[in-house]
Specification:
This protein is an alpha/beta fold. It has two domains: 16-183, Rossmann fold (3-Layer(aba) Sandwich); 188-361, Dehydroquinate synthase-like - alpha domain (Dehydroquinate synthase-like, alpha domain, Up-down Bundle). 46% of the residues lie in helices and 10% in strands. The mean pLDDT is 95. Bound molecules: nicotinamide-adenine-dinucleotide and zinc ion.
């Protein structure tokens, strides 16, 4: 099997997708429908909503507030599971994730762990999850990562620095609710960083060597929607938030059948070594991508300028030799996307000096 051959011949999509302004109002009925009389429901809620009406509406269930100041770690997931397991002697009937990629991924990982023994790091990799998880519902409150549609839940293992999810058909949500009202409060810079994750996933997929027509179609439509949003005069206007929510979902569908490219491995380096959050890290990496993606480099920067969002510069320009070693290792470990983007000579093209030079350009 070649390095890029995943062996996946069929695509697992989300079974039910509810879309529309106000569609969130159906969530309580959905929970009641699944929750048995002697059972319980767990709701993972982004910390931003911890004092909101949203919280009040769900407070009769077991609400786990997800701290998004740090992106998910295998150890955080294990801690949550240990608290829930000590409180209840059985699995919940339904799990709901309400938030961004961090919260949705936390919900997905916990759903799998309720029905599979061991800890989160045991399932980092491909198709290691053996049993279907607890029925799970995803409700994104910020658009871009596509976590609502993908078969993974990204977590960093602090013991070995591995940033990898539970790639499995069992990780895909059973039901998602896409309500653009929920993204109204996202701060401008975060809105652009996360939204650009959809743009970057899809441009990397379309520029890569491993392609298939289904993934390409999803990617092309995602890019089209992202362009409409980020070239508009107000990316946060209601119709633009609707478009970005669809772009995020379609971008997520696209990743299931394709690979990312050069941006994501460098971005993972920044996240693992400097703790930079995924979506901001991607945008910072774009500062140094002219050589690899000239057309997209220009377009990305013109959209960032149009939306008047500030991008940090120079975060990796003055580090220690040890940090540069770590950055190199955390980047080059992502062989599949680098192979997808640069072919089998990727290690020659991205030798250590070149990788460090690229980090310094950011
Ligand atoms: P996030 O979940 O980390 O949230 C980012 C910030 O936005 C947080 O401060 C959060 O509180 C805030 N926020 C969210 N919704 C808000 C709202 N409606 N109003 C105000 N603030 C709001 O952000 P993200 O960028 O969506 O997710 C990043 C994570 O997703 C990373 O861990 C990344 O690795 C992961 N990811 C997963 C996949 C996947 O397929 N599972 C794909 C790409 C990225
Ligand atoms: Zn991404």
């Amino acid at each position: 099997m070649g390095i890029l051959d995943t062996g996946i011949k069929t695509i697992q999509n989300v079974a039910k997708v509810a879309f529309g302004l106000g569609s969130f109002s159906d969530l309580n009925a959905l929970i009641e429908d699944k929750k048995l009389a002697d059972g319980y429901a767990v709701v993972f809620l982004d910390t931003y909503f911890s004092n909101s009406i949203l919280f009040d509406r769900l407070s009769e269930y077991e609400v786990v507030i997800v701290d998004t100041s740090v992106e998910p770690k295998t150890t955080t997931i294990d801690n949550i599971m240990s608290i829930l397991r000590s409180k209840y002697d059985k699995a919940p009937n339904i799990i709901v994730g309400i938030g961004g990629g961090s919260t949705l991924d936390t919900a997905k990982a916990c759903s799998n762990l309720f029905t599979n023994p061991g800890s989160a790091s045991d399932y980092q990799g491909w198709d290691k999850v053996q049993n279907k998880g607890v029925f799970k519902v995803g409700v994104p409150t910020i658009s871009g990562t596509g976590s609502e549609a993908t078969r993974t839940c990204v977590m960093t293992n602090p013991k070995n620095g591995l940033k990898l999810g539970m790639n499995s058909d069992f990780t895909v949500f059973d039901h998602i609710i896409l309500d653009p009202n929920l993204t109204e409060t996202v701060p401008r810079d975060q809105y652009l960083y996360t939204g650009m994750d959809a743009y970057i996933h899809c441009m990397e997929a379309l520029e890569g060597g491993y392609r298939n027509p289904v993934g390409d179609a999803y990617s092309r439509e995602t890019l089209k929607l992202c362009r409409e949003v980020f070239n508009s005069s107000d990316m946060l206007e209601t119709s633009m938030r609707e478009k970005l929510m669809v772009a995020s979902y379609l971008g997520g569908c696209s990743i299931a059948t394709s690979y990312v490219g050069v941006v994501h491995p460098f971005s993972a380096g920044l996240s693992v070594v400097l703790g930079t959050h995924h979506c901001e890290a991607n945008c910072i990496v774009m500062n140094a991508m002219e050589e690899f993606y000239p057309k997209y480099y220009q377009e990305f920067h013109s959209m960032v300028k149009r939306q008047n969002v500030h991008l940090r510069k120079g975060i990796a320009s003055n580090l220690t030799d040890e940090q540069y070693d770590e950055l190199y290792n955390a980047t080059i470990i992502h062989e599949k996307p680098l192979y997808n983007a640069l072919g089998k000579k990727f290690k020659e093209i991205l030798n250590k000096d070149r990788v460090i030079e690229i980090f310094k350009q950011m």
